[in-house]
Design brief:
Elements: H1 11-62, E1 94-99, E2 111-116, E3 130-134, E4 139-142, H2 147-150
Antiparallel strand pairs: 1-2, 2-3, 3-4
Length: about 150
């Protein structure tokens, strides 16, 4: 009588496979998460560039910049603003704030700031905590990363 060999995996082989997969996940997941956070920074760039263009449009119409994001556009008796329905970025990963540039008057300068929200854990981005753009096109950020990483 001939003995047939059983086919399949042994418990040891399965355990070795699980250990190898676990090591790969431990190494790959943090890198993947960092790349996702980096790719979502474009949401802040879109928000800041659009708001800067809207500020320039506002300036051509009223000869001053506004620090109001959600306020309606100008008409008699109203506070002037950019007229945005919300201060959220297109994908919702950042919020927009507008302020007068330091040491300058509100009428001739602005600083736009994109601050990460909790959506998608974007607020855990230590390299680029906030991303800024001012009225002369100067790009900035707060965080531990270099400027080229944030912009």
């Amino acid at each position: 009588m001939t003995r047939r060999r059983e086919t399949g995996f042994t418990l040891i082989e399965l355990m070795i496979t699980l250990v190898v997969l676990s090591i790969l996940v431990v190494i790959a997941y943090p890198s993947y998460r960092e790349r996702v956070i980096e790719s979502r920074r474009t949401d802040a760039h879109v928000l800041l560039e659009k708001a800067a263009a809207d500020e320039e449009r506002f300036y051509t119409m009223y000869n001053l910049y506004t620090t109001k994001v959600v306020a309606p556009g100008c008409s008699s008796g109203q506070t002037c603003g950019l007229g945005y329905g919300s201060n959220q970025s297109p994908e919702g990963y950042y919020t927009l704030a507008v302020a007068a540039a330091t040491g300058k008057t509100i009428s001739n300068s602005f600083v736009l700031t994109a601050t990460p929200t909790t959506k998608g854990a974007q607020n855990s981005d230590a390299k680029c905590s906030t991303i800024t753009l001012d009225s002369i096109g100067k790009k900035g950020f707060t965080g531990t990363g270099p400027l080229r990483a944030c912009w």
